[in-house]
Each structure stands twice: as C-alpha cells, then as structure tokens.
Amino acid sequence: MFRLTLRTIVSHKRRMVSTVLSIVLGIAFLAGTLVFTDSLQRTFDDLFSSVYASTDAVVRSSEEVKTQAGTTRGRIPDAMLAVVAEVPGVAEVMGSVTGYARILAKDGDPLGVDQGSPNFGMEMNDSASSAWTTVAGRAPIDGTEMAMDKGSFDQGDFTLDDAVTVISQQGPRTFTVVGVVRFGSADSPAGSRVALFDLATAQEFVGQPGQLDSINVRGDGSLEPGALVARIAQDLPAGIEALTGQEMAAESSSTIKDALSFFDTLLLVFACIALFVGSFIIYNTFSIVVAQRKRENALLRAIGASERQVEVALLAEALVMGLLGSLLGFLAGFGMAKLLRGMLDAVGVEIPTGGLVLLPRTVVASFLVGTIITVAAAVLPARRGAKVPPIAALRDVVIEPKAFSTKRLISGLAVLGIGALLIVIGLTGELAILGLGTALLFVGLFVVGPLIARPVARVLGAPIARLRGLSGGLARENAMRNPKRTARTAAALVVGVALVAAITVFAASIKSSIRSIIGKQFTGDFVVATKSFGFGGLPSSLASELGGIDGVAAAAGVQIGGARIDGEDQAVTVIDPAVVAEVFDLGVVSGSIEDLDDAGILLSKDRSESTGLGVGDTVTAQFLDGSTHTLTVRGVYDKEELAGPFSITTSL
Question: What is the Cα–Cα distance from 623 to 286, expressed in whole angstroms?
Fold first, then answer.
C-alpha cells in the first residue's frame, strides 16, 4: 500500500502541484513573519547592546504617560549632572537631549521620508562611551556647528564644512557640518535623520534650556552596573530613576520592535487567511480525487485491502503533499522576510544590516502547521473513499451522491447562526471574536453550499445557456450535476472575494468618515502642519504670527500631549480658548470654551457621561514635569473626534 501510494503521487504530478501550491502561500507568510521577527529582534538587540556597551547606568525621569500615540517621558534638570558625578564609582557623566529637527537638503527640500522614521535633533560629544561613532570629522563644540548621521550625509550629498539648514520648533537655523557619525554599526538609527549638536545648543534648539532627557553614566570599574545603579539611586530625588545600560538597551530594542509589530500582525492575518482558503482547496481536491478513484479503491478492497489501509493510503498522500508544501513554503518564507525588509526601507524605516535568523521554532511551526492543515483537510474525503464497497469496482461510478441531507442543513444553519451572532458581538470592538465569527460564517456557507449549489447554478447558468448555446448549456448542467463539487470549488473564491470586498469597503469607510469629521468640525480655511511622522511640531509663536497676517481672521494652534488625569494616562488636546472656536466647531453642550483658563479643563460628552463629571466638578491632572494641578471642568463638548476626551489651555 505504501509503494502504491508513492506511485500514485508520482503518476499524478499536476494534481500534486496544485494541492501543494494551495498550502505554500500560507506557510510562506507564516515562516516569513517568524524569520523577519526573529531577525529584527536579533539585529536590534545586537545594535543597542553595542550602543550601550560602555554605559553602566542611565538616569532619567520616572514620570511617563502612555497613550495610543506612544510613551512620553518627562525631563530632568541638568543640575543632576553634578549630583550624579559626585557619586562614588562614577567616572564620567554625559547629558542626553532629544527633540524634533529636520535637516534640509541643498535644494531646500527636507531629507528623509515624510511619513517614515522620525527626524531627531540630539546632543553629541567626543566621549569614548558615546552611542555615536565618528567616521569623519569631529564633534561640534559650539552653536555654529553640527554633525549628522552617515545616512543623512550620504543622502544629501554633503561634504564637511558645508552650510546646512536645520528646522526645529525654534525655527530654521544654519550650521556648519563638522562631523559624520554612525549609530553603533548602523548608518542611521532605523532610518531616522539625525542632526547632532553640542549639549548647550541641543538644549536650546531642540530641547528645553536647563533640562535633560537622560544622563548616561560610565563607572570607574569599582562597582558592578547593578551595584552602581543602586548607589546612584540613593542620591536621586523623587521622580528620577536609574537603570543599567543593559536594561536600557533591552528597553530601546523592545520599543522599536513594538513599533514595527503591526507588520507581524498583518502578515499573520494574511497567513491565516491563506491557510484557511488553502484548506478549502485541499478538501475539494481530495474530494474530487476520491470520487474519481472510487473504482480503484473498490478494486483494492476486492483484492483484500481493508478500509483502514485505503484510508491510511489516502492520508499518506496528504501527508507527503503537506510536507512538500511546507518545505516550499518554508523556503519561500526567507524571500518573504527579505521582501519585508525592502518594504520597510521603501517607507523610510531602514533596518540595520544583518543576516536572517532561523530558529528551530520556525522550522517546527512551518512543517507542523502545513502538514496538519493538509492532512486534516483530507480526513473526511479519505474516510469516504475507504468506505466504498468492493462491488463498486464493477460499476463506472464517479459521481458523488446528490441526496438532500437534513443533518447537513441543520448543522450548516447552526454554524451560520453562531457565526452571525459572534460577528454582531465582535462589531462592538472585540476583533478576536469578530474574526472567529467571520471564519464560522464561511464554514457555515461551506456546509450548506451543496444544498443551494444546484438551484443557484440553475438560475445563474440560465443566461449563459442562452447566450452560449450548447457549450453554455453543458457548463450549466455540469455545475448542477455535482452540487458538492460546485460548492467546494466556489468556497475558496467566496473567501477571496469577501476579503477584497472587506478591504475596499473598509478603506472607503475610513475616507468617508475622515471627510465627514473634518467637514463638520473644522470650520477654517487652511491648515499649517509638519509632514514628519511621529513627534515634531511648529514654533509655539507661529499661530499668533499667522493671525497677524492681513486677511487672516483667526489662527488657532493645536497641540497633542499627555497627562495623568485622575490617575489614568490620557491624551490631552492643548488649545487657545480665545480663538479655537473660530476654526473648530466642538459642539459645546454645557459651559463655554471661552471660560477655559489655566485652572480649568474641557471634557467630551462621552467622558463626562462615563465619569459622571460636569461643569463645576474637579479633576486632578499630573504632568510630565511632576507637577499636580486641580482643574475645574469649564465646559463639555459633543464632538470629540478631533478634540479628544480632554482639552486644556496652551499656557497651562
């Protein structure tokens, strides 16, 4: 039976190829995602380990706010440099500052990708323990000089001593390029364009005078990093923390991997869809194969083969095809991983060079998933094929029974009902339940498909029969003759068309929703904004300057920040109450925007209803500088899509 199985596979190469290909795509997505994720993790782990190799401790603010836009951390006073430097065991301290900065090319256009990696301005020094490795020139020493990452230097075709314009929230300024650096082993950190200055210039130009984002510490070797951190922590005031360089490296690597995790999720979803569709194709293929080989299986039964032997032989075919499909999908996964790297590069997120990483779990998962799905899809057809009676060898029977099945109807409707119920529940925001409901809906359609395939084929095939004559009539009759085969073949197409329709409707819905929101809530004529993705911004004085232009009635600056409101991290919209009503219609339902002051806050209607707070009530707000304020609710607005749940004044 085993030799017969192998000969059967070899003698039907085309059928084997079509079955194998149905599993290759799903396994390629799965293996590619795992290889890409593991390679990404290894690359950034190695990168940040080298960057923080000479850093024994990092001192930073412990005040942070986590919102959907990411984590924002407070700053610490630069007076802490002297405090940390006096700790026994500390050999060197270096202040770190990071802020928004955009390097302009020689033609005046900004470097980098508008919606790609963020654009930074940072401090730099010539310390041996600096995260930056100088490849040409030297570190800047005053407010007229700058260095830049090698990626920006090459992209802008700059040379040393060139005059380069950099824009920050303080406005544009021209510097002389005196140095070119790499971030560890990378030309630029994850594709970001970075302008580097001396500490004082960085504080004034991209940060905040007198403030640091963190302090990097190098020990004198008398204490282990953990012991040094514990010793430093004893001299730190409340709101400031210390951690080891190794911990900082792990956190930095994790932050970037989390930011790119949407790629993994997207690909795994496509892998599940491809494997789901592939299982339909495999089931359909084996069902047709079993029907075509009914006489052959009956002959095997007639000469002594048992039901179990015939069933195992058919499952062995599925096993071989599953292994082959898994192997090809596994190999294609490496190409998928390289394609992912290229896609990230195309949107401005450059991954440091490094080989692809293959872990044992990738091999096991690829072969296990591909093989199990293939064999599982072949179980029912194999069982039907094994139950053929020996007498069938004397008949020319290849068509499956067409009898109506009450059991199939009841079970199919039950699955459809459960799937529809889960979809309704999932539409409230539970994506996992929504996905399960959608899958069950397809399964239910697959179950009841053979019962409706004949009448549907009769109706849909009627115009074809009239238009195409004999060939159209034969096509219609062929689809009606075997409703199970017709339904199974259509099942995979149903999933594909549903996916295309879902994506199209989703995209159109988002566009329509955004246009509706902007059209109803934004009443101004123009918007001035940066194109840089992530953090960035405009000078705080720009709104008032624009408001003074002839022909401009009002210009309202808007900022998005973070605060801890009544103990919960929240996104906060920052507005100028004197002019914001001129360009936004927030739909105020109680109170007034004009009443908003530095001791007040505005709430959305949804937030007001969920918390029970109204005009005159108070909330406690803690900001990243550690300050705590008791704010009185001055108004409640209905339209929160643009303004968010909370709004405070620019001056606060």
Answer: 64
Q: Please, are residues 52 and 248 in contact by the beta-carbon 8 Å criterion?
A: yes
Report helix, strand or coil for 443.
helix
Residues paired with 459 in a beta bridge: none
Residue 200 is predicted with a pLDDT of 94
Nearest CA to 329 among 265, 383, 286, 373?
373
CA-to-CA distance for 37 and 185, rounded, in angstroms?
20
Distances (CA, A) of 411 to 433, 447, 481, 583: 21, 8, 23, 57
**269: Cβ contacts below 8 Å, ≥ 6 apart:** none
- The tokens for 489 are 């073949």
Contact status, residue 146 vs residue 230, Cβ threshold 8 Å: no
SS3 state of residue 83: helix
CA distances from 589 to 168, 634, 635 (A): 38, 11, 8
SS3 assignment, position 396: coil
Which residue, among 575, 566, 561, has the nearest Cα to 613 in the 3D structure?
A: 566
pLDDT for res 352: 62
Q: Which two tokens stand for residue 56?
A: 């024994």
Distance CA 562, CA 572 (A): 5
- Reading the block at residue 497, the tokens are 């068309």
Query: Which pLDDT does position 488 carry in this prediction?
Result: 77
Computed on alpha carbons and rounded to an integer, the radius of gyration of the chain in Å comes to 33
pLDDT, tens only, 564-610:
999 899 989 999 999 999 999 999 999 999 999 999 999 999 999 99
- The answer on pLDDT for 398 being more than 70 is no
Residue 647 is predicted with a pLDDT of: 95
Residue 170 has φ and ψ, to the nearest 5°, of -90, -5
Q: What is the mean pLDDT of the chain?
A: 86
Please state, in angstroms and rounded to a whole number, the distance separating the CA atoms of residues 92 and 245: 14
Angle, CA 74 vertex, CA 209 and CA 634 arms, to 5°: 100
H helical segments located in 387-482: 406-426, 431-481
Q: What is the mean pLDDT of the segment spanning 608-635?
A: 92
Check pLDDT > 60 for residue 535.
no
Residues contacting 399, CB < 8 A, separation 6+: 291, 481, 482
What is residue 64's predicted lDDT score, i.e. its pLDDT? 87
Counting Cβ atoms within 10 Å, is residue 547 exposed (0-12), middle (13-18) or buried (19+)?
Answer: middle
Token output for 75: 């700053």
Residue 646, token pair as written in the block? 């909370």
Kindly tell me the burial class for residue 43, based on how many C-beta atoms sit within 10 Å of its own C-beta (0-12, 13-18, 19 or more): buried
Query: Beta strand 628-637 with 618-622: parallel, antiparallel or unpaired?
Result: antiparallel
- pLDDT band of 229, cuts 50, 70, 90: very high
CA angle 640–642–648, rounded 5-degree value: 75
- Average pLDDT over every residue of 74-89: 93
- Would you say 164 and 148 are in contact if contact means Cβ atoms under 8 Å apart? yes
**Residue 58 parent element (H or E):** strand 57-61
Residue with tokens 């239910």: 444
- What is the C-alpha to C-alpha distance for residues 298 and 305, in angstroms, rounded to an integer? 9
Other CB atoms within 10 Å distance of the CB of residue 506: 10
Whole-angstrom distance, CA of residue 590 vs CA of residue 613: 12
pTM of the model: 0.72
- Reference 252, options 202, 219, 216, 207; nearest CA is 216
Phi then psi dihedrals of residue 469, to 5 deg: 65, -130
> In sequence order, what are the residues at sequence separation of 6 or more whose Cβ sits closer than 8 angstroms to the Cβ of residue 620?
565, 566, 567, 628, 629, 630, 631
> What would the two tokens of residue 88 be?
């026994």
